[in-house]
Amino acid sequence: MSVVPRSLAGRWARWVAFVGQRETGECLALFRIISGLALLISIGVPAINGLVDGFWVDLAYGGMRPLKPGWLVAALGGATPATAWILVLSTLTAGVGLVLGVGGRVVALIAGQGLMALSGLNTHTRGSFDALLINSLWLLVLAEPTVTLSLPCRYKTGKWTSHQLVAAWPRYLIIAQIGVLYFFTGLHKVSIYWTPAGGFSALYYILQQPSWQFTSMHWLARVYPLTQLATVLAWLFELTWPLMWLALYYRRHPERSGRLRGFFNRFRVRSIYAVVGLSMHVGIAMVMDVGPFTLVTLAFYPSLLRPSEVRLAARGVGAWLTRRRSGSSTN
Amino acid sequence: MLTHIVAIVILAIPDTAGPAAKRSAWKNPTVQNELASYTRTFNEMGIAITQEELEQRVWSAAATWTAWMVVLRTPLRPYTDYAGVRQRWRMFVAPHRHPAKLHIDIKIDGQWRPVYVARSPDYNWRGHQLDHTRTRSMLFRYAWKAYRGSYRHFAKWIAAKATHDFPEASEVRVRWYGFRTPSPEEVNEDRIPKGKFRSTLVFTREALR
Question: With a cut of 0.85, is the ipTM above it?
Answer without folding.
Answer: yes
